[in-house]
């Protein structure tokens, strides 16, 4: 019915608020994902820190991370948000980045997000297997 369409449209507007949706229209390569993490830290320096490498992959690629920490005195938890363990899970790093961007972009305007982020530090590692991810993007894929 029309009521369902209205609700879907409202939800889409809510989801897109504060997020550059067009970046999420395609799957990005390793370099783009690293750049996106760095850009989030630059855009939200009060709550985000870009870590260029938490370690190296077998093929010597850096494994980047983003730390979200509001430095609120109420922080009493630490949460690890990681994805991209398996090579062909392209949606996982994209989803991790999308959720991360929603959180940091809404911190200043959404009381629910503020309550969450003021209670925990979040370490975001969107691609723990950059070698497999990169290989799956440049070599024959199983269909």
- By DSSP (H or I, 4+ residues per run), the number of helices equals 5
- Taking the alpha carbons of the first and last residues, their distance comes to 36 Å
Average of the residue pLDDT scores: 89
Shape: globular
Measured as a percent range, the helix fraction is 40-55%
Order of helices and strands: HHEEEHHEH
Largest sheet: 4 strands, mixed
* Strand element count: 4
State Rg.
17 Å
What share of residues are in beta strands? 5-15%
What does this structure look like?
The model has no long low-confidence stretch (mean pLDDT 89). The chain is built from 5 helices and 4 strands; from the N terminus they run H-H-E-E-E-H-H-E-H. It has 143 residues and is α+β, with helices and mostly antiparallel strands. The protein is globular. The termini are far apart. A 4-stranded mixed β-sheet has the order 1-2-4-3. The relative contact order is 0.19.
């Amino acid at each position: 019915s029309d009521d369902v369409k209205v609700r879907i449209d409202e939800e889409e507007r809510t989801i897109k608020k504060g997020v550059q949706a067009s970046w999420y229209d395609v799957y990005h390569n390793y370099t783009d994902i690293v750049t996106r993490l760095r850009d989030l830290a630059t855009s939200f320096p009060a709550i985000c820190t870009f870590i260029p490498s938490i370690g190296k992959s077998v093929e010597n690629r850096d494994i980047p991370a983003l730390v979200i920490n509001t430095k609120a005195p109420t922080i009493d938890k630490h949460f690890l948000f990681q994805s991209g363990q398996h090579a062909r899970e392209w949606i996982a790093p994209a989803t991790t980045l999308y959720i991360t961007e929603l959180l940091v972009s809404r911190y200043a305007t959404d009381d629910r997000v503020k309550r969450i982020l003021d209670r925990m530090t979040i370490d975001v590692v969107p691609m723990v297997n950059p070698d497999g991810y990169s290989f799956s993007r440049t070599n024959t894929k199983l269909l």
